[in-house]
Write a structure and sequence with these properties.
The protein has a single domain, classed as Leucine Aminopeptidase, subunit E, domain 1. It has helices at about 30-40, 40-50, 85-105, 125-135, 150-164; strands at about 1-5, 15-20, 60-65, 70-75, 110, 145-150. It has a six-stranded mixed β-sheet with strand order 1-6-5-2-4-3, sandwiched between helices. Strand 5, helix 4 and strand 6 (about 145-150) form a beta-alpha-beta unit. With about 160 residues, it is α/β, with parallel strands linked by helices.
Length: about 160
């Protein structure tokens, strides 16, 4: 498995699957979630309506619809509450469960956003370290895992962690 980081718009990536930093309703929201829903078109929302939501720390999968990616793996990350309410375990679960589903789908390339670091308030440095550690230790058949940073600060965090 090759783990890399880039700064990009996750909705434009030609990978087998992208991970959506979703809310529990799966019906769209702000940030990455809203961007993915807009880029995927109305078919994604229609498919998500039939799923019935998702628990924090877990994932659900849909087709990519109008996205270049074949699949969207919707991961519901935790809202940051200071770190003593199980947030690290729930966030790590998002990354692990995404890879488990990716393996079931025979995904070879996958892209992850910085789950929970937007409106959910998870500290970027802690989230980046947890993401890299969790993905590095994962037992997966995925060939290429890309961490997608929306901004330079997050890319710098990923780059530093991946070089160590």
């Amino acid at each position: 498995m090759h783990l890399t980081a880039i700064r990009a718009d996750i909705t434009t990536l030609e990978v087998d699957a992208i991970v959506n930093a979703a809310n529990s309703s799966l019906l769209g929201g702000g940030g990455v979630d809203g961007a993915i829903h807009r880029a995927a078109g109305p078919g994604l929302l229609a498919e998500c309506r039939g799923i019935g939501g998702c628990e924090t720390g877990d994932v659900k999968v849909t087709g990519g619809h109008d996205l270049p990616a074949t699949w969207v793996i919707h991961a519901v990350g935790p809202v940051w509450q200071g770190g003593s309410h199980g947030e690290p375990d729930l966030l790590a679960s998002c990354y692990r469960r995404s890879l488990e589903v990716a393996d079931e789908l025979q995904v070879r390339t996958i892209a992850f956003p910085a789950i929970s670091t937007g409106v959910y308030g998870y500290p970027r440095a802690a989230a980046a370290a947890l993401a890299v550690d969790t993905l590095r230790s994962a037992d997966t058949k995925v060939d290429v895992i890309t961490l997608v940073a929306f901004d330079a600060e997050t890319l710098d965090l990923y780059t530093e962690l991946l070089s160590g």
